[in-house]
UniProtKB/TrEMBL annotation:
Gene transcribed to yield this protein: ilvH
GO cellular component, one term: cytosol
Subunit text: Dimer of large and small chains.
Identification of the protein by name: Acetolactate synthase small subunit
Family: Belongs to the acetolactate synthase small subunit family.
Protein keywords: Amino-acid biosynthesis, Branched-chain amino acid biosynthesis, Transferase
One GO molecular-function entry: acetolactate synthase regulator activity
Length: 192
């Protein structure tokens, strides 16, 4: 049985026009849904943008979110990645203090290397580290970097995409009507 803290990743393909983000955010706010992460970016089709939304909740919350999203005119397609094999990434930039002894800097660089992170800027008193990966990996790195003294941290939020042909064909076919109604050719939509 699912608890109220199940994490759901939803991708909404939306028409690329002004005001879409505010409509989607307004829908979430009006219904009391909490957004854990929201990322919007262009796709290979200049008419379409992809919103990747992470929400916490049970299956009923997820169904309500999907139904409400599909009611918005600029939404062309909604995909839930819960039961689809997918890749997800979050990007982190972090400035960490290296003041004090030189060993601290070396130790921090070794830690970054263990996590396959990259040092992208170096100054006398700090390092800037870039890292991409699953949220859990970033959270683990942040915990281990805290004792060094995190000066500043920024994250992009989660982006996700189905692996290969993992998106269920039935779901794709079911969204063709919504794409046609929006004036976007379904063949031009990204998979998933």
């Amino acid at each position: 049985m699912e608890t109220d803290h199940t994490r759901h990743i939803i991708a909404a393909l939306v028409t690329n026009e002004p005001g879409v983000l505010s409509q989607v955010a307004g829908m979430f706010a009006a219904r009391g849904f909490n957004i854990d992460s929201l990322v919007v970016g262009r796709t290979e089709n200049p008419q379409i943008s992809r919103m990747t939304i992470v929400v916490m909740g049970d299956q009923a919350v997820l169904e309500q979110v999907r139904k409400q999203l599909m009611r918005l005119v600029p939404v062309v397609k909604v995909v839930d990645y819960r039961e689809v094999s997918h890749v997800e990434r979050d990007l982190l930039l972090m400035q960490v203090s290296t003041e004090g002894d030189q060993g601290k800097r070396t130790e921090l660089i070794e830690l970054a290397n263990l996590f396959r992170a990259r040092v992208v800027d170096v100054s006398d008193d700090r390092l800037m580290i870039e890292m991409a990966g699953a949220e859990e990996k970033l959270e683990a790195f942040i915990r281990l970097a805290e004792p060094f003294g995190i000066l500043e941290l920024a994250r992009t939020g989660v982006i996700a995409m189905p692996r290969g042909a993992a998106a269920p064909m039935a779901r794709r076919a079911g969204m063709a009507a919504a794409a046609a109604a929006s004036g976007v050719d379904d063949a031009d939509l990204p998979p998933g």
